[in-house]
Amino acid sequence: MKQPYQINIRVYYEDTDVGGVVYYANYLRYIERARSDWLRDAGFELDLIQRDEGAVFVVRRVEADYVQPATLGNWLTVTAEPVDVGASRMLIRQRITRDGELLFSAIVTVAYIAADLSGPLRMPKAMRELLKLQVCPPDAAIAPARTPSE
């Protein structure tokens, strides 16, 4: 079974509010880092895609759940799990945990668009096929299956 890509991040003072709690927007920064590192480790340098393909990946939608607060000094594990790859978009499930405890989860829709922002582009076939190899299986904890009675 495919395992999620993960990075570790320490919470610094600059990430927190006066109470030592991570400011809510910083969770989006953390998941951006994990997505960027995942793509780089999968062989896709974002700056080269922009230069050579005239395209960029942009966030189209984020559906986020803030479950527990992260605080100053915590070590966090941030994951990126592609769950669907289409012609010009990807769905990526992301989580932030502390010692295995879920703090934050999100489903991020990323679009592949022209670098001049003129509209969506189809990903090159080779890119799409390599990204499809990274797809992780669905997770019932994030997207619960419906029972027949629902």
List descriptors.
disordered C terminus; 5-stranded antiparallel sheet; 23% helix; 150 residues; Thiol Ester Dehydrase, Chain A; alpha+beta; single chain
Question: How do you describe this structure in short?
Answer:
This protein is 23% helix and 35% strand.
Describe this structure in words.
- This protein is α+β, with helices and mostly antiparallel strands.
- The chain has a single domain, classed as Thiol Ester Dehydrase, Chain A, CATH 3.10.129.
- The chain contains 3 helices and 5 strands, in the order E-H-H-E-E-E-E-H.
- It has helices spanning 24-41, 46-53, 125-132, and strands at residues 5-10, 55-66, 75-85, 89-98, 101-114.
- The chain has a 5-stranded antiparallel beta sheet.
- It is globular and about 45 Å long.
List the helices and strands and how they pair.
Elements: E1 5-10, H1 24-41, H2 46-53, E2 55-66, E3 75-85, E4 89-98, E5 101-114, H3 125-132
Antiparallel strand pairs: 1-3, 2-5, 3-4, 4-5
Overall spatial form: globular
Number of helices: 3
Compute the average pLDDT: 90
How far is the first residue's CA from the last residue's CA?
29 Å
Strand content: 35-45%
Per the CATH scheme, the topology name is: Thiol Ester Dehydrase, Chain A
Uncertain ranges: 140-150
Instruction: Give the quaternary arrangement of the chains.
Output: single chain
Overall tally of domains = 1
- Using the coordinates above, name the CATH class: Alpha Beta
Q: What portion of residues is helical?
A: 10-25%
**Series of H and E elements:** EHHEEEEH
Helix/strand class: alpha+beta
| Backbone CA Rg | 16 Å
Q: How many β-strand runs?
A: 5
What's the CATH architecture? Roll
